[in-house]
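Section 5.1 Outputs to date
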Amino acid sequence: MSTPPIVQAGAEIRRARYAAGLTQREVAKKLTTDVTFISLLERNERHPSLARLVTIAEACQCSFVIDGSGVRTVEGACTVVRL
């Protein structure tokens, strides 16, 4: 069973990557995907599943909080919380 995609997460994914000091290439390598996919995510042209957002949080060593207003980056433990 797949989870629905998380829309409009691109800016927060980019913010988390910058905060971690990682390039798109480095994140792609950690996620075993290609740079194009990371670029598409950051531009909201592709939307990550909840599982993929967890792997991005782990790669960037951050947390994402998903609530009614969208996705927010929270520094700290590598988790994704859906409110």
